[in-house]
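Page 42, continued from yesterday. The earlier attempt failed because a stray header line got pasted into the input along with the sequence. Redoing it now with the clean sequence only.
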Amino acid sequence: MPDAHRLKAAGYRQQAERKLKMARLLAGGELEEEARAAALDTILPLGCALAIENRLPEPATAEDALLAPLSFCWKGALSALRGLAADPTLPCQPAIEAMSQV
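This time it went through. Structure tokens are written below.
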């Protein structure tokens, strides 16, 4: 992978890590709604990093990041992320943990 692509992916991963850290802190403070929003905000930058790393087109939205062909890059995290995006009543902690493994 060219250096420019590697740097761009690293920037996306750094952005995603900040959002994921925020989600963890909010969830730990029992602010579930805010933690869920932060977790959802993590999907797009992490999806963009995965796309660059796997030489796929970058997604335009978080929803696009969970669709094929990029969906295969999420591996075990995909079902937790789809659940988080689709059902606002589900707890966000499983998705937060799943994203921390990607």
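Notes: The chain has one domain: 3-100.
Reminder to self: strip header lines before submitting.
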